[in-house]
Amino acid sequence: VPDGTIFPIYNCSGCFTFTGGKDRRSGLILTIPLCTEQTSMEELSSTLDYLLGIPSDKCKARGFTVIVDGRKSQWNIVKTVVLMLQNVIPAEVSLVCVVKPDEFWDKKVTHFCFWKEKDRLGFEVILVSANKLTRYIEPCQLTDEFGGSLVYDHMDWVNKRLVFEKFTKESTSLLDELVVINESEKSNQLDKERPPDCNFLPSLDPETVLQTGHELLSELQQRRFNGSEGGGVAWSPMDDELLAQPQVMKLLDSLREQYTKYQEVCRQRSKRSQLEEIQTKVMQVVNWLEGPGTEQLRTQWGIGDSIRASQALQQKHEEMESQHSEWFAVYVELNQQIAALLSAGDEEDLVELKGLQQQLSDVCYRQASQLESRQNVLQSAHEFHGTAQDLSQQLDGLLGMLCADVAPTDGAAIQQTLKHLEEKLKSVEGSLAGLREKGQVVMDQMSNQTTWSYGKDVPIENKENIDHIQGVMEDMQLRKQRCEDMVDVRRLKMLQMVQLFKCEEDASQAVEWLGELLDALLKTHIRLGDDAQETKVLLEKHKKFVDVAQSTYDYGRQLLQATVVLCQSLRCTTRSSGDTLPRLNRVWKQFTVTSEERVHRLEMACSFHTAAEKVLVQASPEQGDLPVELEQETYEEVETVGKALLDRLTVPVIFPDG
């Protein structure tokens, strides 16, 4: 019943309900079965109140015909029930038919006349047998227990009525909840500062309630409330007059309307929840990147002082990048979610979503840019330290070459060593230029490096790093300059040694040339001429030959003197002219003795030819006779000179001892 109390509406003897039948005035027929057991009047009264609340006011206005089935009850109970009708429904009851048992009650018991009490009761009461009930009500409006043909299944009616009551109660409760939720959501939308009550949900599932209502409405519209599919008269106790179908339709319409609004509320809640979740995640990403992430970058500012140190910093940076990658992955996911919301979102959310997307993108791109800038600085610093290490090793190698003693065997070896030094120095110069270039790159990158602090870019203090780079470059420049100075000294020393070897070689060559001249003088310069004229020519040629030998000797002497000077300059005490100077002097002495002997012989030959020619001229017919004394004197001169020349020719030009 409406107050929540459950009373049985099915008695042991029959059905306490509206069967759907109507009297001849179109009034509804109410059947009240009674039994031999004591009947609770309170239960009967409550049941009547419930049943009378079902019909419409229009239907109630036509009145009711009440059938009190007393065939299995006692008279006093029947009388009590009839009198109760006076108190419950006096105005609506037009006729009360009391069905008496076949064996009539004792006349003394039934002495009470209902018809005399009509005015007091407000309705007519008749006692009638079950087989004579058709006098007052058409048989088609009576159930089979009263001899009628009206089809009625009370349990089916009860079940369907329970479904209707359950649906009515649940839908009404659900409607109230949905209205409260929808109105609350509407108030939240008007008052933006008011926190929404996201936990306020309906106690029932709207889909289930709607499905129940549709099934019930389908039953009502098919007018097969009792579920009968066989023949007979179709019966619907909850037709339009009972307001069942209109009530269900009205409730369904209201429920659908409020459920549609509720679905929109849920959609708005889901969207708001998703938006709030995105906002929370965005702020988590932003707070971490601007907090711990930025702090990590701010503390990692060094570049190391060696390759190993820069590698360690790079490893730390990779670990830091790995941590950032996790947050960047969240950024990518959030960006996709925001893009999906932007493509399907409402216009009022576009500004907020775009703002979140822009904020997230700005922070992530700024952090990624700083990470990349830091990575570039570390990579450039690693290359700088690598170049510095290579340059240092080159300088050490060059210095080692310069500090080693030079003991070349000849000029070619000196030239090769000098070429190697020049190549080393050129390589050092190239490496130093590369070091300067890489150092400048690192300093430029560090000068452009900034960090995000208090909402703005703040330059990172890199003075220590810049001073370190400049110090390394200056140190390498000084070492390279020292090596250059040492290379210049070594180059000069090596050139002097080349000159020394050249002088020694040329001096030896001069000795060989002088020996060749001596050999030529001894072997080929032997003719003395056939006449004075030829002898004079040979004498002139010999003087020129001697001049050449003199020049060769002087050249050799000068080379040997230069060798002495170079040895002194090079502090090469182990080297000297050796046996070159004695050989030169010995060959020159031999040449001088031979040359002088050659000159004496040519001069004697010239005197001999001159005297002989004079004798021959005097003895010619053209001269006539000359004094005997003059001829004898001339002849003796020729003989003396000739014999002296012959004697000189028998003596060796130079003796074996030189």
UniProtKB/TrEMBL annotation:
Keywords: Repeat. SUPFAM superfamilies: Spectrin repeat. Residues 379-488 form the SESTD1-like spectrin repeats region domain. One of its GO terms (molecular function) is phosphatidylinositol-4-phosphate binding. It comes from the Eukaryota. Pfam families: CRAL_TRIO_2 (PF13716), Spectrin_SESTD1 (PF24915). Residues 31-154 form the CRAL-TRIO domain. The keyword Endoplasmic reticulum does not apply. InterPro entries: CRAL-TRIO_dom, Spectrin/alpha-actinin, Spectrin_SESTD1. Belongs to the SOLO family. This is SEC14 and spectrin domains 1. It comes from Oncorhynchus mykiss (Rainbow trout).
